[in-house]
Amino acid sequence: MTDLRDAAMTSKAWPFEEARRIAKRYETVPPEKGNVLFETGYGPSGLPHIGTFGEVARTTMVRRAFEVISDIPTRLICFSDDMDGLRKVPGNVPNQAQMAEDLNLPLTKVRDPFGTHDSFGAHNNARLRAFLDGYGFEYEFISSTEYYREGRFDEMLLTALERFDKLMEIMLPTLGEERRATYSPFLPVSPKTGHVLQVPTLERNPAKGTIVYEEPDGERVEVPVTGGNVKMQWKPDWAMRWAALGVDYEMSGKDLIDSVTQATKICRALGRTPPETLTYELFNDEHGQKISKSKGNGLSMEDWLAYAAPESLQYFMFQKPKTAKRLYFDVIPKAVDEYHQQLRAYADQEPAQRLANPVFHIHGHNVPGSNMVVSFAMLLNLASVSHAEDKETLWGFIRRYAPEAGPESHPDLDAAAGFAVRYYNDFVKPAKMFRAPDAKERAAMEDLAARLGAWDGGTDPEELQSLVFAVGKEHGFEPLRDWFKALYEVLMGASQGPRFGGFIALYGVAETVTLIEQGLAGELAA
To answer: Per-residue pLDDT tens for 135-165?
Structure first.
């Protein structure tokens, strides 16, 4: 453990860089609350999505890294802002008219359009918890409504009331003229309608802990800022939460940079140290446009998990969080294969190398082995040339290539075979574009088919690769990648493909000869 901790203190893996920033907070004095607190936030006006997964997964990676370099206990809370007022009806829920009747009520007072829970907030909170539990995240769930109503924020709310002017000095310069005229950091919950009101604070009485505001009907009402009678505006609320709970670390997307800046200032105005923060880049779709829940572009959690295991998504989330990445279907095969490459490498790595390996940050000290004796990319190509409709077709080839493998002993491979068939039929098959070979390519492929027809050297992938390589070289392909590109385009209908020697070993020598003959005869293009 000492060697591991020493390696962690100099590791360049981004979770360790983040962990060391957190550790500096407590170099001299341990936290009074007895732990280091990590937070992720969730707005339950919508259902959990891939961004929610990414934020919790990445925060968990930083937490795990911190636990390597420090003995201070840690907690991870997932905070649901479920006391927020419903400002618009989501487009992806039933009972739209009923939802419209409940506009401006706290989400925990909005009737559940699905009819399964006491409120829309409760429904989405349950979805969130099931979502996180399904991926084995360790966290504590916190409801904003409960914390406000139970008085857990009362002390900090009273401090915010005392320092009202300081909060306004921070927020007003960030607002437009019209908003400045009516802005207040406190949103009273109307005792008449239950609505979360966005109205000015007309009077405030720190000694009594109350504010005065005007109801829409003109009546002036005085309410305590404690006990759930008010909710704070978004940015002050975020800062108040940091201050009240003693949050040490929270990450957020690039679109919230301004919110982090203002919340940091407000947290200090409340007399507390703001957390360490990380701003991550947002995901783009295949056209380079920002992924949007409302637009429905890009990839959802359900989309990814239809074609690959969740660990591959965690691997994708680990990669360079501060760099914008394209999140679309064609990134899935690469993520799957790279994840398993890292699993295979882990067993023989030194401590420093292990800490830089993404699989440590996904699995911690319990990194599993990989039983993917065939890559996902190879399975896709196998599905392509065999026109597979189910994974059993692929297992017919896999068993011949790796007799020791089976669905029970190699569950990851079995699942990947099923995913590969689905991915092939949904994405690869519709995009296949075969072509006929030119004269030079035809001569080389005829030569390759003849040599394979006379081949008696077994199915060693490297020997077969050397054979393919030699044919391309003897027929004057320069660079040699043009030879392999021709094989892929003529035989597989794609411009990229697997290491061809490995493909022959898996698909079969005789079967590959037949495939070449079909390509030369124009049968594949037809």
So the answer is: 889 999 999 999 999 999 999 999 999 999 9
